[in-house]
Each structure stands twice: as structure tokens, then as C-alpha cells.
Amino acid sequence: MTTEPLATPPKRKTRNFALLSNRAGAAFMLPAGLLVSVFVIVPFFWVIFVSFTNRTLIGATALNPQFVGLGNYLALFDPATFFQRGQFGFSLILTTQFVLASALLGQALLGLLLAWLIQTVPPWIKRITETFVIAAWILPEVVIGFAWFAFLDYDNGTFNMLLESLGLPPGDFLLQQPFWVIVVFNTWRGAAFSMMLFNSAFSSIPPSYFQAADVAGASSWQKFRDIGLPLIRGHIVTDLILITMWTFNTFTPFLLTNGGPSYRTELVSIYNYRVAFQDFQFGKGAAVGVIMMLINLAFALIYLSLGRKRAPK
Known about the structure:
Keywords: Cell membrane, Membrane, Transmembrane, Transmembrane helix, Transport. By secondary structure, this protein is mainly α. Helix content is 71%, strand content 0%.
């Protein structure tokens, strides 16, 4: 008995799926690439170009700006006026203090402590804490700014009413301590991001690590120092990079103090706004923007290098 050979299936036409996939990917990326080019890349190089001119928003130089080279940068770093109030150097030093107090010692540290503490509390307390802290972060900046202004108002502010009900004298905090007002305000608002980031980082640590530490009799501080911190080092670096740049560039304190009184809260971002849009010196304002970009880049490189050096092997 003979068996017939099996019929071979007809050959199907093959397509170059790799080429099709590349073309489809390019088509999907094209709209995003156009948006990034129009709103990020082109303005980026335009600001750099404008920083070398004397362009203004009004007057003859608004239409026919002249190339001044490094003139705007030399004016910003003029040693005769660099540290005077209302000048770039004063705002830069003030912003550095603001970043150290609000971002590093305020948001990062407070967010880290809150994230660690809510790991040990009952779930209902954890949910309530997260709700109140996150509410400060998700509300619009304008709403938060005017709410704090009303809260600290000398004549009709809620805070002074509370002080008077306790028999304490009221205070004009926006006038007497404006810097610490914006530090507390920015810390209160920004700690939520750090708390959520660190909370997710602590939650990703296997529970067996902490259970073994409990068996060994480790205290909460020892577990935090020897287990928690080393395992979330990458998250700490990410948080520091983001909140440092956000705090350095923040404009929200303007809603509380308008940069005053007497330039005591005029951060670099507020100084940039005043120079470019109130004094109409757009070329000088562009130079401030370029310097801010370089400082942000330096912050990111420093944090990334520290994260690589201290990363566990």
C-alpha cells in the first residue's frame, strides 16, 4: 500500500513588517515631535539668541533689536551692584536659601518622615493623612496662594483670629517675616509629592526584610536607617532633582508677597518676570532664563553623580 505525499501549503506573500513598524512608529511620533519642536526646541534656541540682544517689549528696540554680545550677562554680574537688593545677585542668593530651606530641609525631609510614619499607622489614619497632604498639592496654585494670603491677613486673617482667641498678640507675618512665610507655604504645598514618592518606595521593599529586623530586635530608627534609606536611595535622588528644580523655578510666592516687601522675597523667577515684563528688558530677561537653565542642569548633574557614587553594589 503506497502513501501519497502530503501536499505542501501554498506560500504566502511576506511583508516587511519591520519596515512597516518603523513607518508606523514614525507616523505616531510625528505629532509629538512637532509639538516638542514648536513649544520647546524652537523657544529654547530663540531665548538664547535674544539673550545676546537688547530687545525690549516696547520702543524702537522691540522691532529692531541690536546685538550686544555678552552685555546682558555682564550687567547681571556687575560687581558694583550684584549684591544690592533688587539685583540679580541678591535674588540668586535668596533663591539658594529658599531652595535649601524649602526643598531640601522642608519638602524632602518632611515627605520622607511622613512616608515612613504612615507605614506604621492603621490604614484609616494613613488614608486621612494622605488625603489632607495630597489636597495641598492638587489644588490650583492661584487658589492656594490667595487662601494663604487670606489666612495670614493682618486685619481679618484666620491665623490672627486664632492667636487672639488664645490671648496671643496678632502679627503681620507677610510684612515682618515674608521669607519664612513663603518657605512654610512652599513646604506645606510640595511635601505631598515627596511623601507619595517615598511611600511607594517603602511599599516596594519586601516585608520580610522588616520582619527579620523585628526578630533581631531592631528599633524603628534602625530599620529606617539600615534598611529603608539604603533601598530607596534612587528614589531620594529622583525626588531631590525634581523638587530642587521645581522650587528653584517656582513663581507661586509672587501671589503672596509680590516679591516684596523691599525685594525680600524676590526669587530669581520673580526677578526674571519683573525685568522682562515689568521693566520690558526682554533681552536681559532672556539672559536670566538662560542662567536659570544652566543652574538647573548643574543641579541635575550633581545629584545624578552623587546617586551613582553612593549606589549600592
